[in-house]
From TrEMBL, chain A:
Protein name (record): Phosphate-binding protein
Family the entry assigns: Belongs to the PstS family.
Entries under PANTHER family matching the protein: PERIPLASMIC PHOSPHATE BINDING COMPONENT OF PHOSPHATE ABC TRANSPORTER, PHOSPHATE-BINDING PROTEIN PSTS 1
GO cellular component: plasma membrane
Source species: Paenibacillus borealis
Highest rank taxon of the organism: Bacteria
Limits of the PBP domain: 27-267
Range of residues in the leader sequence: 1-28
Gene3D superfamilies: Periplasmic binding protein-like II (3.40.190.10)
GO molecular function per UniProt: phosphate ion binding
Lineage: Bacteria, Bacillati, Bacillota, Bacilli, Bacillales
CDD domains linked: PBP2_phosphate_like_1 (cd13653)
GO biological processes: phosphate ion transport
Membrane topology: Lipid-anchor
Automatic annotation (TrEMBL), chain B:
Transmembrane segments annotated in the record for this chain: 38-66, 86-112, 133-157, 169-188, 225-248, 284-308
Membrane topology of this protein: Multi-pass membrane protein
Biological processes per GO annotation: phosphate ion transport
Listed InterPro entries: MetI-like (IPR000515), MetI-like_sf (IPR035906), Phosphate_PstC (IPR011864), Phosphate_Transport_Permease (IPR051124)
Protein name per UniProt: Phosphate transport system permease protein
Family to which the UniProt record says this protein belongs: Belongs to the binding-protein-dependent transport system permease family. CysTW subfamily.
Compartments reported by the entry: Cell membrane
A Pfam family this chain is assigned to: BPD_transp_1
Amino acid sequence: MKVFRKLTVTALTAVIAVTAAFAGVAAAADSLKGKITVNGSTALLPLTLQAAKEFQKLHPKVKIAASGKGSVTGPQAVKKGIADIGACDWDASIDVPGFKAFEGQVANKVAVIPFATIVNKNVGVDNLTTEQLKGIYSGKITNWKEVGGADANIVVITRAFGSGTRVNYQAKALAGGDIVKKEKNYKETGSSGDMKTAVGTTPNAIGYIDLVYVTGSDIKAVKFNGVEATTDNVINGSYKIWAYGYYMTKGQPTGATKEFIEYVQSKKFQQGSLKKLKFIPIAAMQS
Amino acid sequence: MGAPVHSLTAQTQKSLEEVKVDTRRHKRHLLGNTISRYYFLFSILALCLVLGLVIVFIGKTALLLFGSISPQDFFFSFNWTPEEDAFGAAAFIVNTLSLTALTLVIAVPISVGMAVLCAEIAPKWLTSFIRPVLDLLVGIPSIVYGYLGLTVLLPFLRRVSGEGLGDGLLAAALVLALMVLPTICRISDDAIVSVPRKYRDAAYALGSTRLQVIMRVVLPAASRGIISAVILGMTRAIGETMAVVMVIGNTPQLAKTLFTPTSVLTSNIVMQISNVEFESTWNYSLHMMAFLLLLISFVLILIIRVLGRKRRDA
């Protein structure tokens, strides 16, 4: 009994000492506290969640709540004051096709997102030019044999209007060209996951998706103007279908929000976790 | 002398106590009744309040739509290109109605047939196998049905029809039919089982065959239950979203064939609501579509209730 009590006391003392030591360290480093709400793009959500986890470890008094629902909800939530940070796949402080600029918001670059044109595994074509893609998505080219494939109707799969992936794909891969609805062989999907399944299970299908989603044997990424879709080709500038991911804030960020964005932009995070998640560091494109 | 007096007193005391206990119990029951009465009243009022709020809030946002476009444009135009300020929802309305009709055409005969099988024909071991399986099917989340539709049904339809995509009303109706089948079947089953035995006995006594008994006696007698089963199935079919989104193609155009990629009210709302700015005509028109769904199911339920009543009176 006595031994037992002694052990308990020792253990308790040790725990208290360790806690105190850590608390001391944390308190010394950390006068930062607050609550940050992040809303918006689902493509950037994994990045935000990972960053939030690491940031909260450094600053235990900061609470970060992150959710994703679609790019445009990010700047909207910021506008309404629901969120401090609106994650968005395009720079929402300027006009883009379909969406007006959000006045008074500042776009903070946090990552580079590459996109890829994908086709079903049965499609023989492995390279498409901007003109060919424009033709396919505007409905002028409807058969694979017109772009060097087998004699089969092209099934066009696209994301719903307002998707960040679609906004960027239209701007970069189609050079601003239209995506036109057709009577048949045209389908819209609601998310990257649905896109992948739809292209994977539909013979002769073509679609587009974040490069990180290109896995498995049902779909394959095709070359764009002869350049393969890889992160290396994005970094050396030869592969053009990519976009910055942004954290939108109301005016310049302050306090905990500022610290958090700076953490995401820091070399440690960009070269570490962000790369592991298969995004590309922003520094790689600016140099 | 002492002993009897003692026992008498004891007896009196005991009965007095019993009376006291009875009174207490009575009071307790009264209290319980009062509390439960208020509780139920409160529940009903709360339900009405929530329902009312839903209608008011959706309706309020929806009606803002007519500040920017005219009702004719919304209800009678087939042109839905919101990015170019054309908000015609007629195609979705027609598609929703035809999808629901097609679903019921597929599901009702099969599920009522299964209900008859369960209640009248099948041996006990088969019935006790089918019923739990159907109950289980109701519990499967709709997105799973949608995923199966996308990965199993669509490739099958493509092979059979030779279409490039396979998406469309037929695929959606088949998935929905599978989803509403257990609901319609189980409720019709209960309705048929609760038809009194004497009806059947009387019919048999008159020399009816089994088919005649089922078609002329049992089904008409159970028709009100079967109609409420169909109502429940139908409301599920109209409101179902996730499964439909995955197999219908989501192209805002009128479904001219069974394999035209198309869109219904629910699927269009779920595809677009998260990508639309809060205070825009586009957002209001999506709310109007939601409000319309509410009204459509309300009207359909009313129609079928009225039909059911007439049928019973005749």
